[in-house]
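The records we work with from here on pair a chain with its fold. Here is one such record, which you should read through line by line:
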Amino acid sequence: MTFSYVVLKRLYEFCQVEPTLAEQFAHGESTADAEGLLSRLKVNVQPAEVKKLFAKLTTNSPTENPFLAAYLPKAQKIHADIDVRIAREQFTDPAFFRNLQITRNRIFLEEPMLRSYAYLRYYPLAWELSDGCGVQCPFCGLEAPALKKHFSYTKTNAALWKEVLIAAKELVGQVCASAPCYFATEPLENPDYKRFLTDFRSVFGTIPQTTTAIAERDPEQFRAFLAWIGKKELADAAVRISIRNRAQFYAIMSAYSPEELEDIELLPNNPESVRFYAASGRAKEKTGSLPYSISCIAGILVNMVRCTVSFVEPETPSEQFPTGIRIHESRQFSDAAEFRQALRVLLNMHVRDEIQIHDHLSFNTYTTLAHQNNEYTFTQQGMRCRMRVNKVLSQSLELCRKGTTLAEISKNVGINGFVLDDVKQKLDMLYTRGYLRCIHSGATV
């Protein structure tokens, strides 16, 4: 029997949220009421088909799993479209684009489990339209603080919002069209979220992706939100739903038909799901959590309530960076002119696609160096890079091991001109690949 895409999607989501129960159904070991389950999921499937269908949907092979076979071509198109929206040509300054690629290279070196995520992308900017989050998910890797206040759509705030959007488009680029309007917040908690997105659409011609954890609270309002977005943008993965627990999952299944959620991705984050948590924020002590940052922002973070603009980067979670985020610098603004100036300063100071003379240089915490004869080997989490060296470059690398700058290398090794340029070129290569850290001299090291 052939099943529709929406039916396969819904049953696959059940398998992701309830993997143990799905496996029991697949092997004929479940005593649960299959007919009752299918009714709760709102799918027209005969109970006799469940065992055979779940046996396929619980595999990770696209040739065996009918949902994956239908979904993967859709996913490939979605990510191809994303790559166009965040391509080099969408940036005002190509150096910012290259800076994001360097960040991605570094994260891939530090966090081996992310290397298999071919679609992992980092975005240059995010907006927060609330101060804190009222949902307080127990697995929040960002450990979002309690909700304090929303950015309301007043006449003054609306004017400021439009002006900062225009400033970001000018200084960062059209790539800001992909900048999410949430970070350590729940977007749909702000009652004016749709109004702010309306202005966003007027500036950029589209809306950014929205992930919500409260789609079950007001189904009619959520339906109206989806209808306002429109079928075309929903098909581009404009909306995702985070599943906090099984009760919420079944509430969503009850509230919405499979057809209504055809283009809405469900992210299973309940403890029983197939997913694992990032060992950061509130999830750092959870069993099976893995040390990686959930942040996909490498650049500018703007909070409209606090009127702050910060330059941030993802970091492997640690005691120093418990939420997997490094905040290099934050600045206040009270109007659009101050925002523009603060943004310009942060970009000039912290965007790095090559090493500057006074930048602080040090090897990545996870990089090990081995020196034998006239060759250095740099190893990090199973990745390796070799470099032939002379005496000058060897001395320079040893200074980087301790922490230094190009200016200090020039002074202590006694080099300048073409020789210093050659050393810089080699260090730039290590920085670009992620083995070497380069941080503006005024930023937090």
Notes: The chain is about 40% helix and 15% strand. The longest strand covers residues 325-332. The chain has a mean pLDDT of 94. The CA atoms of residues 38 and 47 lie 8 Å apart.
